[in-house]
Structures are given as C-alpha cells and as structure tokens.
C-alpha cells in the first residue's frame, strides 16, 4: 500500500470565499483566539493562536470568521468527494487532511507520480492550496505533506530518511509531549527511535509508542473509509453579498463541474437540479431547474442552468448558494454509442433540453396522435417529452382530416355550400364532455375549411385544409 | 477565369448541359421538382414561401418531403405555427409524428433563436418557421446555419414580400387556385430565372 496525504491549509478560509488579498482570520468555535489566518494576515504580523484583541490592534482591517464545525466537516467531505475520482479508498483526517490509498490506482493512471501530477494540476486549476505527501505508511505521508518536504513523490527510502532527520517540532506531537522530549535532550526522530520501546511506553507515554510504531509501519493504523453519499450537495458562502444573478454564474460553473464528475463516476445522470439561495433578511429562495432529458455533461448542464437563471430575478442579495441533486437516473442508455443512429437518438435530447431551457418547458411540445375520435383530443401535445410515444393506432378512418386545427372551434356563419359530408363524430360521453357534430368541408373566405354543425344547429369552423 | 472555375465547382452557376450539384429532397410533385434547382427542396437552404394567409395548400406541398425526412432519426421543428398541426392528418400522409417538435416562442427574438439553434444543432432534418418579422440579416443567419448542417428550412414570413431581394435560396408564392390546385409563383431560385405562375395538382387535400 502507498498512501497519499492531501493537506489543505486554510481550508475553511478558502472555502468560505475569503479574498486572499485581504487579511482574514478564523476564530475558534469557543473563545477569542485565532485558529487560522491567511497569508495576507501573516504578512501583517499575525500568528495563529493569538488573542483576537491583539490581532485587531496589529491589523485593524482584519476580517474574522467564527468556526462552525459542521461546515468545516462538510467542506472536507466536499474535498473527499472530489478526490474520489483518484482513489476509492479515502479516509478523512479532520480538520484539513485526507488520506488516499494510491498503490491500487497506479496501474490505471500509469504510475503514482502521474496520478499525483493530475491531482495537483486539477487542484491548482481551482486555486486550492494543497500540500501532498506520498509514503508507505499513512503517518509518514501526513508528515511529508504537513511539512512540505518534497515537491513531488519520491521513493519510500527517501521519505523514511527524511523522517529520521525530522526535528521533534515537525512530528505533529501534542505540545506537552514536545516539551517533555526537548527536556530529555531529544532533537530528532532518529534520536527518539534509539530509545528502547519499553522505556518509551513506561517513561514517556503509551500513545507516543503507538505513534512511533504506526509511523514505522509496524502497527497498522485503523482508518475509517469514507463512503460518498448518493446525494450531491455543494454550497458556496459569499462574504460580500451577490446582488446580480451573473455573480452566481461563476461559483455555479465550478459546482456544475463537480456535479458532472460526480455523475460520471457513478454512471448517473439527472433531470433536476435544485438551487437554494439564502438571503440575509428573507426566507431563502428555491429554484428548481428541470431538464427534459437526463444530462450529465458539464457544458450542457451549464448551458441549461444559465438559460434558466436568465429568466429569473433575485428577490434579495444572496449570501449563500447551494446546489442539491437528489434524484438520479442510470446512464446506461446515454452512453456514446458506436452505432451512429443510436448516437443520433441520444443527441436529439440535447436540442430538446436546450430549447426547453431557453424558452421554458411549456413552450416546447411534441405532437402525439391519439386514438380519440374527437379531433381536438386526437393530437395532444404532451409536455413530458421523455416518455416514448405510443405507437399509432392502426385503424384510421379513411376520411380526410385538415392539416391545421384551430385550438378552439370558432363560430362561423352558415357556409354557402358544403361538400364531403356529413361525417358524424359523437364521442366523449364518458367524460361528460359529450360532442355530437356533423362535419363538412366548405369554402370560407377563400379557404377550404373543416366546419361542423352541433346539436343546436350552430356552425363552427374547426380547421383549415392546407 | 479562376473565379469562374471556382464558382462552377461550387455549383453556383447553372449550366444547362450539366446536372446540378445541389443536394435535394424531392418535393413529390414533378412539376415543382422541375422548377426547383437540384430537382427538389434544396438541402442546406432557406425556402421562403409567401401566401396571404395560412391554409393555402402550403403544407400539402411539403407533405411528401416531410414524410421522407421524418424517417431520419432527427427532429422536424415547427416554430411559431399559426394553428395546431393535426397529428392524424400528418400520420395519414405518412409523416412520423414522433420526430415533430412544436416550439411556441413568445416573441420574434425567441422564434429566431429557436430556429437558428435547431438548424445549427445538426439534430434537425428540417425547420418550419412562421416568423412575424422579416430581416435580411436574420434570414442570412438562418441560411448559413442551414448550409452548415445540410438542413432544410421553410419559412412563411408573416410580412409582405420584400422585393429588394433575400438571402434565401428559393422564394415562392403559394396560392390556392381551386379545390385541388395550388398556384405557385417563383420569385427567386438559385441558378435560374424567376418563373411565371404555374399550377400544381394536389392528389389529395389535407
């Protein structure tokens, strides 16, 4: 096994959208001391662990976020979901780390180095701060990542040699433990390992012994596997409120990219996306976005969402944007096919989706011949476009029908001369919408029309031959 | 000389002794096929059809071609149809209604967007449109989109014929002469002169 440790420094500050050009700090959930600061704040002389009052004295423009543990957990899970495309064996290491088992994936990606390269490239394209370490044991990988020892994966031997050189402060031990070791005159790991194991357990602490054994790989570390939930949720917090819907587009693009990845890994597609917008002084608004056909491609998802957003107005400035997908459909019939006709069939849905996204679902219909004898019901326009249309009824009455039907029959004067008639249509009594009509063909205002006379001897025009 | 060669290769010059290079779908009416360049409705071209009101036999003219096109696994998109097309009549004429997509745009902009998007997507064999306005630049966009994807486009502009010319490849006037006769006047056709009105016999009126 080989372990890749991903360390996301300032995960919280970065995820909540803090501007890297401005000093930002994260305040502990309880108490008034700084838990984390961004690099801009560090340049102003701030340090993590500093009391808030001191920090504000040093840097009056400092902006502070209070830590919300559940949010921190959520963001780490989001990173784990992203990392899931590189390995199926992932463990969370709260608050800011992830373990990935990568030896099993080396064959797929070519080598561990290539996997690492792709992963870091993708992370840097999203402007994420990321330090990573690859080693034979989880703890070595973690040390390598936290201390940023290597700029790229190296051999197990090199990592272990570097570990041996590591000073006590680099080992991520609790503060009192470090102090204890310093008092013993131990400066490096190598010196620590020279002590007999029994002495470490009895004179220092059993935890330290376990730590050392796990570090050397003599004892396996139990890591809980991360199981991705079958629900997609992503959210963005805006520190400064977004007042125009175009401002939502940029974070949405990134969210849809991760949705697309999520769907592709699971071979799923979706037909509805739920966008929730939180406002400061109002109840949050909910924008469901529905597609005529299940979709998973990022470009298409973005196109569809963008056009749906264009038709909506923000009721108030937005403080938080979240995207949630709960319903999925299998992708098996959406796979690109080698057979050109099947491929074309799949591509057809693209146009339908696009038209519906731009114009609205009610403005794009299909034509569906129905067996109903009443002409106005015989060609219904179903909105649901995905259901396969029923096959045509075979027995058509071999009588002529006009190509144009009026949406509603319109009253008209008695036609001067009727042809081809009468053809009686009497139906609908089972729905209390009984019709009894005698249909004729007649010339009306220079057009050849389909007219009928109802029970009350009233004349109506119902369609035109064209 | 080079330019002429080039134009000849592109089929932009009509030559009596040479069969045309234009790809087309037979209209199903020999008299009409003879007048249209390429022997039918031209693929990748916009056809403008003018009639003073719908119901002049303009759909019956298309039915054989529509029946043929609807056998392809591609959409036939109707944008802004004046009334509701009757599925039963279409099915009786052999049109596969599963391929038909009806778009009801709210305004002219939406109609043009839908037509162009449909033509450009390559998933349409034909687009039928009833635009409420007529602008040369927009027709040109449609013409380019249709040419790119070799799709057919029929337009019934709801405006009078603009005699200053159009980017459309073919412009016809359609008028019902009698019960089963449609009078057609050719205002413009690529590679030929305009024609005097002539009549076409419809075998069956729908």
Structure description:
Chain A is built from 16 helices and 20 strands. Chain A is α+β, with helices and mostly antiparallel strands and about 475 residues long. In chain A, β19 and β20 form a beta hairpin. In chain A, α11 runs antiparallel to α12. Chain A is elongated. Chain A starts with a strand and ends with a strand. In chain A, about 30% of the residues are buried. About 0% of the residues of chain A have low confidence. Chain B has a domain of about 140 residues: Rossmann fold (3-Layer(aba) Sandwich), CATH 3.40.50. Helices cover about 30% and strands about 25% of the residues of chain B. In chain B, α5 runs parallel beside α6. The mean pLDDT of chain B is about 85. At the A-B interface, α15, β13, β14, β16 and β19 of A face α3, β5, α4, β6 and α5 of B. β13 of chain A pairs antiparallel with β6 of chain B.
Write the layout of secondary structure elements.
The complex is a heterodimer of chains A (466) and B (206).
Chain A: E1 3-7, H1 11-15, E2 24-27, E3 34-37, H2 39-43, H3 52-58, E4 63-66, H4 69-83, E5 90-93, E6 97-101, H5 106-109, H6 112-125, E7 131-135, H7 138-146, H8 156-165, H9 175-183, H10 189-194, H11 197-204, H12 206-216, E8 232-242, H13 246-266, E9 268-279, E10 285-295, H14 298-310, E11 318-325, E12 329-330, H15 340-359, E13 364-366, E14 368-369, H16 375-378, E15 379-380, E16 404-411, E17 418-427, E18 435-444, E19 447-453, E20 459-464
Parallel strand pairs in A: 2-4
Antiparallel strand pairs in A: 1-6, 1-7, 2-3, 5-6, 8-11, 9-10, 9-11, 9-12, 14-15, 16-20, 17-18, 18-19, 19-20
Helix pairs in contact in A: 11-12, 13-14, 14-15
Chain B: H1 2-9, E1 24-25, H2 30-35, E2 41-42, E3 45-50, H3 58-69, E4 75-79, E5 84-85, H4 87-92, E6 100-103, H5 108-121, E7 124-129, H6 136-149, E8 152-155, E9 170-178, E10 181-189, E11 195-201
Helix pairs in contact in B: 5-6
